[in-house]
Each structure stands twice: as C-alpha cells, then as structure tokens.
Amino acid sequence: MRALHILMSFFALLVPSTVQAQTEQVSAAVIDEAVLVTSSFTGAKVTVFGSVRRSASSRTDIIVTVRGPDRPAWIGKRKRTAGLWIGEDRIYFAAAPTFFGVASARPLETIAPKDTLSLYGLIARGQLDIAQKSARSPLRQELEAAFVAERQREKLYVEDPNGVRLLKGDLFRADVQMPDRTPPGLYTAKVMVFRNGRPFQSTLSTLVVSKVGAERAIFEFARDHAALHGLLGVAIALIAGFTASSLFRRFAPV
Amino acid sequence: MQVYLPIAEMAVSPWLMVGLGLIVGCLSGIFGVGGGFLMTPLLMLIGIPAPMAVAAGANLAAASSTSSLLGQFERRGVDLRMGLVISLGGVLGVGLGAVLFGWLKTLGVAEATVRIAYVLLLGTLGSSLIWESVRAILRAKNKGPAALHKRSHDDFPHRLPLKVKFPRSKLYISIIPPFLIGLGVGILSAIMGVGGGFILIPALIYIIHMPPSLVVGTSTLQVLVTSCATTFLQSVANGGLDIVLSGLLIVGGVFGAQIGVIIGRKLKGEQLRALLGALVLIVALRLAADLTFSPVSLFDTSSPGGGL
C-alpha cells in the first residue's frame, strides 16, 4: 500500500519535472496531505518527495522544513528570592511555531551561513515573534534560547541532518518526524534549494493535521458545551464509583 | 500501547494511567483524602499541562470518594449532617480562596508567606499526629486497653452559639467551628491547588472531637462535594477536563478506593493516624523541597496545543 503510494507520487513528480525542467528546477509533493489524529495517534512521519536538477558545476543542497500553526506561547524562569524558589520571570511570544521540523542531508551550518538560514526561516529561534510587552525584557535572549531547547526536548522543534536522502537521478526524499504532542492545524512544508550556499529556489506545499472520529467528537463537545462536558465528567465519576462499590459488595463481601 | 488524549493533545499509556488511579484511589479509600496532592504533580511529570492535571485529579477524587463513601455509609461511618456543614463551608471557601489568590498574587511577597506558613502547618500537623499516635500505640502495648478518646464537654465548640445536634457523632456543639474548618480548608485548597483532606482529618479529630470511626467517612463526603465542584468549574472555566484521561484514572481509582476501604477497616485508629501523619509529613517535606532545592527544570513553558 505504502509502496504503491510512493510509486504513484514518483510518477506524479516525474511527469511535470520533465515537461517543465527548463523553467522550474525544483518540484516536490507531500505524500500524505492529511494526517489523521485518531485515538491511537502517537505521532506521524511527514514525507516529502521531489526532484531537483543538480548541476555538475555547483554544490546543491536541499533543506525541507515542516512547520505547524503559530500560536501564542510563554516561557518562565523560576527565580530565587531570599533562598527560596518562589515565582518566575516570564516572557511572552505573540506567536511561535507549534511544530518546527528541519531536515537536510548534512548539518545546516555547513550548508549556509547562519544569518542566511535565519533570513529564510530555517532556524526555529528566528521564527519566535516576541510580544510587545516582553520585547525589552533583560532575560529575552536567555529565555528565547531556553524556549527552543524546551521545545527540542519535547521533539516539537527538530533538526535532522540526515533527514534528506538523495535518491537516483534528480530525486530526493525528506522525512520529518512529528511527535504525539504536535497540535492539529494547517502545516506548511517548504523545500529550499541552495546552490553553493546561496538560496536558489523553493516550493511550498501544505498538509493538514486534524482530529477525526471520537477524538474530534469529544473535543468539539468539550469546546461547544463546556458546562455539559463538566457535568458529564461528574456523572461518570459518580456512576463509576457507584458501580465499583456495588461490584465489591456483591463479589467481595467483608 | 498508547491512547491519544483529545483535550490534552498527547498520547499516554492507558495501563500507567489505570495504575496511577489505582494507587491514588487506594490512598483515598484508606484516609478519606482526595489524593490531588499526589495526582497533580505525577500527571505534570508525564507532561500533562497543569490545569488539565488539576481537573483530572479532581475528577478522579470525585469517583474514588463516591466509591469509598458508599462503603462507609454501609457501615454507618459517615456523619452526614457534619459532612454537609463542612462541605458548605468548603465550597464557599474555594470561591473566597480564588478571590484571595488573585489578590495575593498582586502582592508578591504574600505568596511566599502563604507557602511557608503552609509548610510549617503541615510539618507540625504531621509530626504531632505521628508523635501522638506512636505514644498511644506504646501505651496500648504496655498497659493493655488504650486510653479512651478524650472528649471534652467544655471546650469552645460547646460554648459558641448556634448549637446543633449531630446525632451520629453524639455531639451537641456550635455549628460555627465545623463551618469555619470547612471554609479554611476550602480557602487553602483554592490557594494551594490541593484538596486539603489531610488537614480536615486532624481538625475533625482534635478540634471537633469526632469519634474516630466517623472521621474518614465524613472527610470523604467533603472530598466528594469539593471535587465535584472543582471538576465542573475546571471544565467550564478553562476547558481543562479531558474525559479520556480522567476516565482511565477513574477505572483504576474506584477499585483502588474499595481496596483502600478494606485496608482502612483493618487498621486501628492510632495506626491510621500515624500513617496519615507520615503522609502529611511527606507532603510538607515535598513542598519544603520545592521551595529550597534547585528545581529539576529551571524553566516552565506553555503547552503547544489547542485545536481541532
């Protein structure tokens, strides 16, 4: 099934790349444009297939980023007052990528200078949009770095220097692993081609991560009928307690 | 195997959740506490966001206290009237505490004072419970029959106005002390984010002088009322209730509670108090450690999720 998918996408890619080879030198497609979050969801691998014309005279690098929806976020540093750990200093982000995965065939810093990578949105830290009220915070640098580190620990920000594989001919394949905590929403997959360390061309495609079935029904119910959802929680508790108590009375009389 | 939680937006092992519910439910069956002081930090350790951990803990407490309360009722171990007076105070206290918490936060230093006072309160409470019950156990060993539980008829619950009969406890005391105790526990639980059952039990023993056989059951009733209110409020106020998560915890919790009731019945009053004292002391030490030792993670960050 999966092999068939891959085969089909190969053909889909090969046809336009031969026709438009003169004008468009890179083309790519996401294999699964819809990632379904079911009750057994434990994360998903986003695979991007594509082709890029490699020239003999210059070095070609491919960097693929998969980016989740942006959301407001914050990070706090616990502080010590009079020898006791009480309270924290926080900075807020107006928007930060919820998921940010970068795949390449070798370490990013060997492909292009850091400022170039940052300018083209290939470094997570450069994508943090600080909120106005936190812009002047003295802890900003430290906390931004800590935020990226925390998200890396949660596998929400990933950098995989072996994520892109160059296949036969002009084809390549990129895999980006998303963890179970990746939030639903519209994701963007961007393929950037670098020639000799300079940005050369890019393509964009999108994919959707969405809850389906029971997961979606429960989420929608909780969002739209918060009071009923709360009552349901209480009712479940009471019924479960009652059931267990009567089961024990019947089968384990003391 | 992993199960995806639709509201918390992450996958957890269902067996781990059922197991956690079982252990915490068992504790709540033995002592008549809700177990939020254990459940909330454990869930946060797994990576569940704080408001969702609080809501799930409260929902579990509601289920396991229902389970053990029915067992207690059967053996006439609940003073319904006393429990309702305390619960009324408790619910009002939670509301008052929420307001107070907002005000304390604006002061900054006050938060530290409350935390330190809480640690000291629990520390003295725990150690005096242990000390008193160890003495009682030793006395029982040396002299045979244990000294009868001392019941004054001239302390302040008897002297205050608004006296009410509590037939089950065989008490004729003012309604004010139990109401104030409920109020105080409610305020503390709103500020500290834990149910406060472990403060209620010593208060029932030493201030109200309830018969020991009724203490656990009556406290369980208060836990039930408070945790139902918390479950509902958390769901409405910040959408923190994840029914899949709390459902898994509840499956373990209700059976754990029944096992706990059976264990609790086998323990003597002073053994129960010594164990409760140890539990209170552990909570106090944990809070003290949180305050003094360097935290495991210096940073604290928002959770990513929220969407369809």
| β-sheet strand percentage of chain A | 35-45%
Note the beta-strand portion of chain B. 5-15%
In DSSP terms (H or I, runs of 4 or more residues), the helix count of chain A works out at: 6
Distance between the first and last residues' Cα of chain A: 57 Å
Separate helix tally of chain B: 11
Mean pLDDT of chain A: 86
Structural class of chain B: mainly alpha
Topology pattern of chain B, helix = H, strand = E: EEHHHHHHEEHHHHHE
What kind of sheet is the major sheet of chain B? 2 strands, antiparallel
Mean pLDDT of chain B: 82
How would you summarize the topology of this molecule?
The complex is a heterodimer of chains A (254) and B (308).
Chain A: H1 2-19, E1 26-30, E2 34-37, E3 43-52, E4 60-67, E5 70-81, E6 84-97, E7 100-104, H2 108-111, H3 114-119, E8 129-130, H4 140-153, E9 157-160, E10 164-166, E11 171-179, E12 185-195, E13 198-211, H5 213-224, H6 226-251
Parallel strand pairs in A: 2-13, 7-9
Antiparallel strand pairs in A: 1-3, 3-11, 4-7, 4-12, 5-6, 6-8, 10-11, 12-13
Helix pairs in contact in A: 5-6
Chain B: E1 3-5, E2 10-12, H1 14-31, H2 36-46, H3 50-74, H4 80-107, H5 109-143, H6 156-159, E3 163-166, E4 171-174, H7 176-192, H8 197-208, H9 212-238, H10 243-266, H11 269-292, E5 299-301
Antiparallel strand pairs in B: 1-2, 3-4
Helix pairs in contact in B: 1-3, 1-10, 2-3, 3-9, 3-10, 4-7, 4-9, 5-11, 7-8, 8-9
